[in-house]
Amino acid sequence: MEGLIFSVSGARGIVGKGLDPGVLAGLAGHFGGWAGRGLVVVGRDSRVSGEMAMAAVTSGLLGVGCDVVDLGIVSTPTVEVAVRKLAAVGGIQISASHNPAAWNALKLLSSRGIFLTKAEATELEARIHGGPPSWQVWDRLGSRSARSDLSGVHVDEILASPLVDRERVAAARLHAVVDCVAGAGGEIAGILCERLGLKATWLHREPTGRFPRNPEPVPENLGELAAAVPAAGADIGFALDPDADRVAVVDETGRPIGEEVTLAVVVDTVLPQVGGDVVVNVSTTMAIDDVAARHGASVHRTPVGEVNVTERMLEIGARIGGEGNGGVIVPAVNPGRDGLLGMALWVTALAREGAKTSELAGRIPATVMRKEKLEIKGISVDQVLEGLESGFPGAVVDRTDGLKLLLDGGWVHVRKSNTEPILRLLAEGRTADSVDEMVRKTRRLVAQAAAAPKV
Ligand code: MG
After folding, report:
1. pLDDT (0 to 100) of residue 380
2. Separation of CA 336 and ligand 1 centre (Å)
3. Are residues 344 and 412 both part of a single domain?
4. Rounded distance, CA 217 to CA 247, Å?
5. Cα angle vertex 81, ends 221, 65, to 5°?
6. What is the number of structural domains in the chain?
7. Rounded to the nearest 5°, which phi and psi values hold at 446?
8. Which of 78, 285, 300, 313 could pair with 74 in a Cys bridge, judged by C-beta atoms 3.0 to 4.6 Å apart?
């Protein structure tokens, strides 16, 4: 299975170059064997390879005797909700999330409707390396059915939350521009806006899978939305990623507030209602610490990867958390990242507080964050991290995930990506100059460590 990346985020690769029908059917067969004979829910995002992948995954699952419920093109959180609603033994979402169109991936869900834990992923990996799946004979194959109502069920779950105030939102007569990036979010976002009484103007709502821009919802990719919001006289702009588990916000003036601040505002408005502590990953903005402190809460930080956040939230009973990339998690609704829930919480905050989007964002302490990628071909990651640590003497060292160095007024974090063959470099500080200096120094130290002879 050359060219495949297997991690807590699932199995991911480039279509036709590592990820092909045979590989997908095999992976699905192994997953079905691991999950146990029973019902498996399968959905997909809109990407062009989705139809091929759906057929292959279905074939693999049927072949080991699982029954398949095909949800068609749906958001990732919809598959999570469906696993629990239909009491399935597991779920598969076919989506490479924010990766470009050439990629696809399987996001694997246990019977809890959450991503496989590290231990579960290790069990599955052992099966994958231990020979072919247990293909069944003709009268022990599974059967396939389809459901098209689960997006509505998912919206019902969101609207049932006391944190979402449908009456207030409708009364506020809010207007949102929603950029679905031709991904899976168009249908469900439409149902949500309609039931919330939210006026919507749409960008790229058709799920063609031909992404009109880089699908990662970070500010530099949101130019069209940023122009459309003030042009429409709208109150807010939402950018979903292709599988709609993440959302980023553009304010009424057309300024992208950043995916980190998108989560921080939700925490700021939800925390006073639910109490308890906050769980985020180690790469999430330090503004979360300021927001939590404002409400007398503590912040727990986990390794990057949604399941790590989810697991910790369930463990300590946290009611709000997520990942700083725009992934909001409220376990009472869905213990996974949910872009639709993020939208509902945002418009509820606007309606309840009678505030503008820019005002809510303005309550979050300003920081500057840089997110960069470093090539890791042929270098020793451990050696690089050690070189980095010794280059910042006096920093507080956090080894939760890769290496995070807490410095005066900021931090630097370098870790191996779960989803791409790169190192991720993140840095945050109070001023642009201080962050740029941290990034420059980190890049220099990484280059030095990478060039040093391997020990
Ligand atoms: Mg995603």
Report:
1. 82
2. 11
3. no
4. 7
5. 110
6. 3
7. -65, -45
8. 78
Whole-number Å distance, alpha carbon 455 to ligand 1 midpoint, is 38
Q: At which of 346, 362, 378 does a domain end?
A: 362
Burial (CB < 10 A; 0-12, 13-18, 19+), residue 331, is: middle
Question: d(Cα 41, Cα 68) in Å, to the nearest integer?
Answer: 6
- Identify the CA nearest to 327 among candidates 149, 151, 92, 75: 75
Q: Just list the catalytic residues.
A: 97
**Are 308 and 179 within one domain?**
yes
Do 132 and 240 fall into the same domain? no
What separation in angstroms does the CA of 62 have from each of 76, 146, 314, 426?
22, 14, 32, 43
Tell me if the pTM is above 0.90: yes
Q: What is the CA radius of gyration of the chain?
A: 22
Residue 2 has pLDDT above 80, yes or no: no
- CATH of residue 441's domain is 3.30.310.50
| pLDDT the model gives residue 192 | 98
pLDDT tens-place string over residues 54-98:
999 999 999 999 999 999 999 999 999 999 999 999 999 999 988
Write the pLDDT tens digit of every residue in 217-245.
999 999 999 999 999 999 999 999 999 99
Percent of the chain with pLDDT over 70: 98
Whichever domain contains 65, its CATH number is 3.40.120.10
Residues 103, 131 within the same domain: yes
Q: At what angle do helices 76-85 and 150-159 cross, to 10 degrees?
A: 90
Cα–Cα distance between 222 and 336 in angstroms, integer?
Answer: 24
CB 42 within 8 A of CB 146: no
Give yes or no: residues 201 and 324 share one domain. yes
- Residue span of the structural domain in which 394 resides: 368-451
What's the CA gap between 62 and 136, in Å, rounded? 9
Measure 384 CA to ligand 1 centroid, in angstroms.
29
Token pair in block for residue 371: 């997110």
pLDDT of 98 reads 87
Q: Which amino acid makes up residue 334? A: N
